[in-house]
Here is the input.
Amino acid sequence: MLDTLRSIIQEVNGAKDLNASLDIITRRVQRALQTKVCSVYLLDKNLDRYVLMASIGLDQAAVGKVSLGAEEGLVGLVARRAEPVNLDNASIHPNYVYLPETREEQFESFLGVPVIHHQQVLGVLVVQQVEKRIFDSEEEAFMITLSAQLAGLIANAEARGAITGFSPSGIKTSDVSFDGLAGAPGVAIAEAVAVFPPADLSAIPKRECKDIKAEIRFFKDCLDQVRIDISELKMKIKGQLRPEERELFDAYLHMLSDQALGNEVVARIQEGNWAQGALASVAMSHVNNLEMIDDDYLRERATDIKDLCGRVLFYLQDKQQKERVFPERCILVCEELSAAMLAEVPKENLAGIVSAKGSGHSHVAILARGMGIPAVMGAIDIPFSEFDGKELIIDGYNGIVYSNPSDELRNRFQEIVNEQVQLSEELETIKDLPAETIDKRRIHLWVNTGLITDAATANQRGAEGIGLFRTEVPFLLREHFPTEREQTDIYRPQLEALHPKPVTMRTLDIGGDKALPYFTIKEENPFMGWRGIRVSMDHPELFISQVRAMMKASQGLDNLHIMLPMVSNMRQVDYALHLIDRGYAELLEEGLNISKPDVGVMVEVPAITYQIEALASRINFISVGTNDLIQYLLAVDRNNPRVANLFSTYHPPVLQVLNDIAERAEKVNLRYSVCGEMAGDPGAAILLMAMGYRVLSMNINALGRVKAVIRNVSFEQSKILLAKALLAEDSEAVKSMIDLELYNAGVERLLRTARG
Ligand code: PEP
Ligand code: MG
Here is the structure.
């Protein structure tokens, strides 16, 4: 059973569109279970009915025509209950509806299973037999397992159809929406550009080519190049090859010839596809077919094709990637966004971001917020490669992507864009005023940075310091570890730009969802693994060169603070302090005149909240990293969109812990602040202020809103709000309290969230 299931899934995986997928499903299931009928009904949301989309055994004239409402027939019953229905005598069931178009009167046994994706019934998979009999457990289990595995593929195929402007049953649609997660606030309306990792045949998007002749010429040149490479390789190792291995090389060369793969690719380019897309579709269809065959020799040939086509792809990408021109305003869409991909697009062209993976707490989403680029993350079902070149609207407040927008929808969102611009202009007017409540409680608003250009913006927006410079960002954008001198050159402008205001530089925090391209860390459970200070302690040479570079860069400025990420015990602190002392002594010996920087620790691992007294005897300050602290407190992977709704800033136990940290730090006279994203949420900022936090460090684009809110509330009132929030049972209750507070303070407009 497992083999059959696997091979059906694989075949469906390679189908070119929804109809092809459904045809494969009905044909293969009918054959596997030896039934008379196998049909698929899919929900067409435009009709709110389950449409017969494919069938083996029912009259073909009914396909695409016949449909049932959720209250109608046995199909409706399966959909409504979202459970299998297995009957030996269907025609006497009270829900049975006879559909004359299908000519199904002769079938008595009926087994229908729902196709469920993300808790929603997409459709119903049905098998029927003539004789009266219950389908046995094995058959039922087969259908349930298959349907669970097919759900994602069907959803994906439906989504691909929706982008072309059609519902599953072919009705013309517009304003098709895809749900994701709020990544970075804002709305963008622009052309989508699919970005994809290099050298991955399965990730190439569909794209049209403008000059077919030139594209064919280019493809043939690349093909020739690979042929030359292989011939040269064959010559080089000729003496070491056995005759059958030599034959393999000849077979490769043949595959690349004009009569074989090359020819097929050229035919696809002639249909208007770009060379990379044409190559990928030819390669993947051969690979899928070969992998399905029950023969080891042929399955190995699939690997050969992947390898050969990968070589051709290398040459195609080498040239096409370098010549890439981005539209004036574009929305990047991709499977998994990386800092390097973000950096590929000139900032002025980048209007928005859509990523199928990740959540609003992923590091790239934080980077997007810092850049002020609206982002939708975790849009699991978006067929991102099909978006390429299409107009999209993205709502980064709610995490929704719209394709095929109507004029009406576009106008509505354009109004929101205009409002955003107006609000930013209004916030600009308070940039030089202090963040002070109406009863004169002064709060200091600092910013988090990572990109070199951030420091200048921080100043323009009225930041009072940098509470977190994520030093890993420049590391992520390179192809090797930067040297001590290179690092000094990166850090110095940050310290200079803010001088005399403080700049807190965090030592390298890699691991988790921050992978350096040149220092691979592959782990089962990366957020629990080798990250932050744990990597630094195992590589003291990296750590010491980094802190030396930071201290060197601060010469004559003396506004550097060093901060350690992911600390979970005092041994790490002691070792880091020892290395910092050593670096400092070395620099003095080398004749530099530098003051010793303050050193702090990030409170991100819950255990460390119980060691604040021990920290106070060693370091100068702590800063709470709420992104990680909440992830570990609630056991929610911050990068996993499936559990993103459980990551809750307002969850009362989270507030309790933050309150405890403030109390403990206060008791031992240790400076304390927050530098996680929570500090940039206006509602949460009020609660943090009420707990006693006086320094809040946030992404640059949150600064204006947080300041505006603080200037409109009273400290005394916010303490009353906090007392109530700490006693609440859930985050929804806390959110309502905050909303009411901000409404009463007349600043609810600052919480404005788009939704067309
Ligand atoms: C945090 O964890 O809150 C934090 C600020 O660090 P990062 O988001 O870079 O992990
Ligand atoms: Mg962190």
About this structure: The radius of gyration is 30 Å. The chain has four domains: 2-163, 176-196+335-422, 201-322, 430-751. The chain has a mean pLDDT of 90.
